[in-house]
Amino acid sequence: MNNKKWFRTAKFATYIVVMVLLYILQTTPGFLTVFGVKPNFVIPAAVCVAMHEGEFTGAFYGVLAGVLCDLGGFALAGFNAMILLAACTAVGLLVIYLLRPGVINFVLLLSAVMLARGLLDFLLNYVMWGYDHVWMVFVYDVLPGVIYTVAVSPLVYYLYTAVHAWFEGRMEA
Amino acid sequence: MGDFFKSKRFKILLVVLVLLLAFMLQAAWTGGFSPAISQAAGVVVTPLQKLSSSISGAVSGYFRRYVRADEIAAENEALRAEIDELRRQAVNYEEYKHENEELRKYLDVEFREEHPDFEVELASVVARDPDDRFYSFTIDRGSLSGIEPLDPVVTADGLVGVVREVGVNYSKVVTILDVWIDVGARDVRTRDIGIVTGSVDLAADGKCRLNYLPRESGAAPGDIVVTSGIGDSLYPQGLLIGKITRIDNAPGDISLFAEIEPFADVRRLTDVMVIKSFEGQGGAE
Question: Which residues of A touch B16 (CB under 8 A)?
Answer without folding.
Answer: 59-60, 63, 85
